[in-house]
Amino acid sequence: MPTGPSALKDALSRAKSMIDSGDVDNALELLRTEAWGATENNSQKVQVISLAAEAKIAKGDIDMGNRKMHWQDAHNSYQRALKLEPSNKDIRRAQNKLASMMDEQSISLGKGLQLFDDGNPTPAGLAAVFVGIMVFLVAFKFAGESLEQPLESTEVTLQVSYIHPDDPNSRVEGEIVIQLYASEAPKHVENFLYLVDNGIYDSTIFHRIIDGFMIQGGDIDDMNGAGGYAGVWYGYCNGQISGSNGEIYTSENCPRDDWTVPDEADNGLLHEPNVIAMAKTSAPNTAGSQFYIVPSDSTPSHLDGVHTVFGMVTSGMDHVDAISEVSTGSNDKPVEDVRLIQAYRN
Question: Angle of helix 42-62 relative to helix 89-104, nearest 10 degrees?
Answer without folding.
Answer: 20
